[in-house]
Fold:
Amino acid sequence: MHRRLLAPSALAACLLLAIPASAATAPEGGAPGAPGLGDPYYPDYGNGGYDVSHYDLRLKYQPESDRIDGTATLIATTTEQLSRFNLDFALDVSEVRVNGRKAAFARSGAHELEITPAAPLAKGAPISVVVRYSGIPSKVEVDGFTSWLRTPDGGVAANEPEAAWWWFPSNDHPLDKATYDVSVSVPDGTQAISNGVLTSQSSRLGRTRFSWRSNKPQATYLATLAVGKFDITTDKTADGLPVLNAYSKDLGDNASAARASLERSAEVTEWLTEIFGPYPFNALGGYVPNVPTGYALETQTRPFYSPRQFGSGANVSVVVHELAHQWYGDSVSVKGWKDIWVNEGFARYAQWLWSEKEGEGTAQELADYVYASRPADDPFWKVRPGDPGPANQFHLAVYDRGALALQVLRNEIGDEDFFAILKGWPKENAYGNGSVGDFVQYAEKVSGKQLTDLFKTWLYADSKPAAPAATRAEISGKKAPAKPKSWKKIAATNTVHDHGSRAAAGSTGHDH
Structure:
């Protein structure tokens, strides 16, 4: 993922400037909702005072100009009495209605749309918000970057932690998940790909409208849109789950390797259900647009893959990583962005388990190699996967050191409890959110062991765990262990999360 670079102090100062003085005093009939959910890493992401349950997005897109014209309808419930509330959005807005009545609106901060309804909103009230808007997302920058990816024949929205600002107004934080209907009109001969199931496709007057439905709670950054000319394959799993993969027609030499990887998505998912439990969503697949990026992203039901992921041939390991996120990251999302290990450590460990299944190196051998191949003075060990900081949110340590911590846990509690935890966590927290602390508590409950010290050593220490700790954790400290056969393929996915957002700007690149 990628982020603009702002020091915390500078960001806080910007936020103070962005909050109107009226926010300090509650007018009669309610108070303004907070212009952020207070996430420690990104305080201005999301908004307070309401909870969205559904987004209905009706869009018209022009590939030649990259122009979007849209109408977004949000169905929400207020959580406090509101005189005003905010949405996160960067494009131009022409009209806002709340409960059918025109509402005043204004800009504040870097990406805040302030909405003042005609009358205050009562706490606990169901509300509808309609926003009409337009813009050229590739030309709209927030703090020096855009998450919209322009392609030769269209555009793509896929980034982390922020992507929604450039194509629909939202409450942009994983704590507020919702269902989605996305309907997009494009010129005939062009396709629009989004999350979930394609519910209808119709053509009229030289344009085709594609309508998609994602019917389980979905975080805003996991919503995706890709417009272009694609070759599309469809199928169904043995359980009847629809599978749709899409490949840009101009992938060149990477086209065959991309297909050789994504067409195994159903097989990979079937295997992952043995590890993590039943697949949590209504559709499956992936897409590869013609973009110059190198990352991949776990966009819900339909992960995004950059063509460069297949530059050296097929790589099923990256497919394993992104599909593992459907359980760890999508169904169970982070409570705060500091909890990113609960996404990335587990997706990386799924790659290790796939390696074990394929006979290309066990998870133990991969853990030993991670530990032994990096000396104590390597900056890798300075990054704490349990709370890496916004600049290191997608640092390699979150992935490899994060997966190493899981192998240590497995050695400590044994396979029976370990794999019970891998299945139980996404079942217990399905379609919700979880933190690192929540996971530790859950692991202690299942195993009956006190695990605080283990995680303190392997997730939170800013130094390499010493040899005695590694020995106790059954991690080999040999200076030169054999490199597992799968290491190269797994390492090839290290750009998965090397996006262009403000977060990724400060980290070394990996798959998200």
About this structure: Residues 1-27, 503-510 have pLDDT under 50 and may be disordered. The chain has twelve helices and 23 strands.
